[in-house]
Automatic annotation (TrEMBL):
Family to which this protein belongs: Belongs to the bacterial ribosomal protein bS18 family.
Protein name: Small ribosomal subunit protein bS18
Biased composition (Polar residues): 86-97
Role this protein plays: Binds as a heterodimer with protein bS6 to the central domain of the 16S rRNA, where it helps stabilize the platform of the 30S subunit.
């Protein structure tokens, strides 16, 4: 019997955003571009998430750090803090108990 030949399968490597835009220099003043490499909490995204090679990842990290130092980007986003838990008054507790009705047979 003849062996079936499989077609060679090549993984097409995802091109990074910097390679697609043909950028040689990543400007720290380009906040729109840099914000794509930062998470919602302000952390720099990992290479595995951005698809950058090591050289471009270092360039992006340095540009983000410069932008933070120049106060163009925040170091961290603001977080909402809960200082105390909301208290339930007797009136609110009474309304909850009256809205739930028990059926007896």
């Amino acid at each position: 019997m003849a062996k079936l030949r499989k077609k060679p399968f090549f993984n097409k490597r995802r091109r990074s955003l910097i390679a697609e835009l043909n950028l040689n220099y990543i400007d720290y003043k380009d906040i729109d571009l840099l914000s794509k490499f930062v998470t919602g909490t302000g952390q720099i995204k990992a290479r595995s998430l951005t698809g950058l090679d090591a050289k471009d990842q270092r360039k992006v990290a340095m540009a983000i750090k410069r932008a933070r130092f120049m106060a163009l980007m925040p170091y961290a986003k603001e977080r909402i803090r809960v200082l105390s838990r909301p208290t339930v008054t007797n009136e609110q507790a009474g309304e909850k108990s009256s809205s739930v009705e028990k059926t007896e047979k």
